[in-house]
Amino acid sequence: MKTFKQYTEEKITLSVVEDIQIKDVGEAVAKVDTGNEAYNVLHGTDIEHSGTGVRFKTLHNKVIEKPVLEEIEINIGSGNLEKRPVVAIEFTMRGKTYTKPFSIADRSTNDEPVLLGEVFLREIDAIVDVNM
Length: 132
Fold this sequence. Notes:
Number of helices: 2
Mean pLDDT: 91
CATH superfamily: Acid Proteases
Oligomer: single chain
Helix content: under 10%
Number of strands: 12
Number of domains: 1
Largest sheet: 6 strands, mixed, barrel
Low-confidence stretches: none
Radius of gyration: 16 Å
Strand content: over 45%
Shape: globular
Strand order of the largest sheet: 2-3-11-4-10-9
CATH class: Mainly Beta
């Protein structure tokens, strides 16, 4: 039987806040949220749909155009639903590069412009250490 130490040594251990590098955007701070069961989220404003694609303004005043993978509805509280486009975003964290789906939403009132959720954390077999 594995000890707790052996188990945790086999996992990627992340802190609650991680520095990431987003391709074509630059550096960003991401909140690691084990309570978010939806897609990862990237800050975006001025979202414009065009056929099968989407264009939005994001960090560092970059304008991004991406194909839309799908549209999702997120319950943002009190039964209010928000429709969001989902796009593939390439980013690097702790020396490893990932391309994962992100929903695009205005996170200007949040401390971190990026949210990494539970689905992604499970995929990379990560745990979160709140003391890091």
